[in-house]
Amino acid sequence: QVQLVESGGGLVQAGGSLRLSCAASGRTFSRYVVGWFRQAPGKEREFVASINWSTGTTLYADSVKGRFTLTRDNAKNTVDLQMNTLKPEDTAVYYCNVRDRFGSMWNADWGQGTQVTVSS
């Protein structure tokens, strides 16, 4: 089973940028879709973006489309989420997760996530 570690969160002013990274250990991402999710205080976890590692196909939530970009690094076996033009409503704990590229269920285990705080 692939183990995931998120990193790169922090505090940034509105309009600023952050880059999050999701690293895998145990196996490569080659057979997976890698997704980023976020959970703000008092709200349910929501989908942010995903990338099919083998095809490179990406999908973004409407709320982040045009501002966030996913990239994959084959050498490092990481998936990065570049977040630009951040807004206070982007404040949340961000998590990465995986699902089989032919499946629909995300891994039941969630990591600790990484905190992103955007000040106004």
Q: What portion of residues belong to β-strands?
A: over 45%
Order of strands, widest sheet: 2-10-9-4-5-6
Extract low-pLDDT stretches.
Answer: none
* Shape type: globular
Structure classification: mainly beta
Give a quick summary of the entry.
The chain is mainly beta and 120 residues long. The chain is built from no helices and ten strands.
Description:
This protein has 120 residues and is an all-beta fold. The chain is built from no helices and ten strands. It has strands at residues 3-7, 10-13, 18-25, 32-39, 46-52, 58-60, 68-73, 78-83, 92-100, 114-119. The strands form two sheets. The chain has a six-stranded mixed beta sheet, with no helix packed on it. The radius of gyration is 13 Å and the shape is globular. The relative contact order is 0.32. The model has no long low-confidence stretch (mean pLDDT 94).
Defining key terms:
single chain, 120 residues, mainly beta, 6-stranded mixed sheet, 4-stranded antiparallel sheet, globular
Helices, strands, pairings?
Elements: E1 3-7, E2 10-13, E3 18-25, E4 32-39, E5 46-52, E6 58-60, E7 68-73, E8 78-83, E9 92-100, E10 114-119
Parallel strand pairs: 2-10
Antiparallel strand pairs: 1-3, 3-8, 4-5, 4-9, 5-6, 7-8, 9-10
